[in-house]
């Protein structure tokens, strides 16, 4: 019989060492999660400790030292038999799940219950554990010890930290006496065409001379939607299939204040299509390029999309479909990893109402649940 104690910061690595040392029939005798004490708790991860044994010889305990002539029933025997490999695996899986839950909770465990509660609310808004940990460290370093029990002070600090992570642009930057060309790019189905349809109405209503150029000839409905909206507000539209046609159309709209350029949706995983998009943008020579992202997409995919579209040289980001998102914390996640400004958000399908120029105060309130859409 051999009993050993194992420790480490990663439960998977610890359990792998147990199996390597003691074999698949090892028995987990005890587990514990040891958190660092003092200031170390803010910067060090918890340590997992496992006590395991191997080489056990499991025998039945008979009253007279030997088994009776008649074997016990299957039901009674199963209660005294050695643990099967399948049962051991199940127990290990349950232990691992418990450790994982404790680890996730430990990410936001602070010196006070007030800190824990406030940051738990932040993660429930779909802010990632890593970002929550970063915000947690910044706030605990800045706040005096007395204020770490003051919910008002903690909330103010969280709000300030979130707001500082959201850089916003004032929509589209128009220039007097110049035709500003603005292109919108992004994956298929994120709402580029609907966003442009909304902007047509808004800027035309403000008295700007607006025109639209689209090369989204893959979807008939896309160009038709823009044409219908443009017709209602007296805005001209040109559908272009080649770079030459686009250059010609843009030259014809040189006297306009604003030209909105709609591009065909591209899969971020198709490098060839991204190259085609770059060629279209080169022919259009836009002053601004806005990458349109859907807030119904998971954070990991959004970050990958940003990376894949980077060769296009986009300057601003638009988040659509906030009304369809469960929580909007992922907007903070993406913006914290991308050095770009947020230009617009859309909050529904109605044209032109459901669009807003991005504002850091407004976005912070939405993320923290202080107000609704």
Word description of this protein:
The protein is of the alpha/beta class and 373 residues long. It folds into three domains: 2-107, no CATH class; 122-164, no CATH class; 180-367, P-loop containing nucleotide triphosphate hydrolases (Rossmann fold). Helices cover 43% and strands 17% of the residues. It contains 13 helices and eleven strands. The protein has helices at 11-22, 74-80, 85-107, 113-123, 129-142, 151-164, 192-205, 220-233, 243-252, 271-284, 299-309, 329-337, 360-367; strands at residues 2-8, 27-34, 47-54, 180-185, 210-214, 237-239, 258-262, 288-294, 316-320, 341-346, 355-357. The strands form two sheets. The protein has an eight-stranded mixed β-sheet with strand order 6-5-7-4-8-9-10-11, with helices on both faces. Strands 1-3-2 form a three-stranded antiparallel β-sheet, with helices on one face. Strand 8 (288-294), helix 11 and strand 9 (316-320) form a beta-alpha-beta unit. It is elongated. The protein starts with a strand and ends in a 6-residue tail after the last helix.
Task: Summarize the helices and strands and which ones pair or pack.
Elements: E1 2-8, H1 11-22, E2 27-34, E3 47-54, H2 74-80, H3 85-107, H4 113-123, H5 129-142, H6 151-164, E4 180-185, H7 192-205, E5 210-214, H8 220-233, E6 237-239, H9 243-252, E7 258-262, H10 271-284, E8 288-294, H11 299-309, E9 316-320, H12 329-337, E10 341-346, E11 355-357, H13 360-367
Parallel strand pairs: 4-7, 4-8, 5-6, 5-7, 8-9, 9-10
Antiparallel strand pairs: 1-3, 2-3, 10-11
């Amino acid at each position: 019989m051999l009993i050993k104690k194992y420790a480490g910061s990663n439960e998977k690595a610890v359990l792998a060492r147990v199996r390597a040392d003691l074999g698949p029939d090892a028995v987990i005798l005890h587990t514990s999660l040891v958190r660092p004490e003092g200031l170390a708790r803010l910067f060090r991860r918890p340590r997992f400790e496992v006590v395991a044994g191997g080489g056990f010889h499991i025998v039945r305990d008979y009253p007279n030292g030997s088994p009776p002539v008649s074997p016990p029933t299957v039901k009674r025997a199963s209660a005294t038999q050695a643990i099967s490999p399948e049962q051991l695996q199940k127990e290990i899986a349950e232990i691992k799940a418990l450790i994982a839950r404790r680890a996730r909770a430990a990410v936001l465990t602070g010196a006070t219950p007030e800190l824990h509660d406030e940051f738990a609310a932040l993660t429930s808004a779909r802010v990632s554990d890593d970002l929550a940990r970063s915000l947690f460290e910044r706030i605990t370093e800045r706040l005096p010890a007395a204020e770490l029990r003051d919910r008002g002070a903690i909330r103010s600090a969280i709000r300030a930290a979130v707001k500082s992570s959201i850089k916003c642009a004032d929509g589209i930057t128009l220039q007097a006496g110049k035709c500003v060309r603005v292109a919108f790019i992004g994956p298929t189905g994120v709402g580029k065409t609907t966003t442009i349809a909304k902007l047509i109405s808004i800027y035309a209503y403000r008295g700007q001379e607006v025109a639209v150029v689209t090369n989204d000839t893959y979807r008939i409905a896309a160009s038709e939607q823009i044409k219908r909206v443009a017709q209602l507000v007296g805005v001209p539209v040109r559908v272009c299939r080649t770079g030459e046609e686009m250059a010609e159309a843009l030259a014809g709209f040189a006297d306009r204040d604003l030209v909105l350029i709609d591009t065909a949706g591209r899969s971020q995983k198709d490098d060839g299509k991204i190259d085609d998009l770059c060629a279209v943008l080169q022919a259009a020579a836009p002053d601004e390029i806005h990458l349109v992202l859907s807030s119904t997409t998971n954070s990991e995919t959004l970050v990958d999309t940003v990376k894949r579209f980077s060769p296009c040289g986009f300057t601003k980001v638009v988040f659509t479909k906030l009304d369809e998102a469960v929580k909007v914390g992922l907007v903070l996640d993406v913006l914290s990893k991308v050095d770009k400004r947020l230009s617009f958000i859309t909050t529904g399908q109605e044209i032109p109402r459901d669009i807003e120029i991005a504002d850091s105060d407004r976005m912070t309130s939405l993320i923290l649940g202080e107000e609704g859409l």
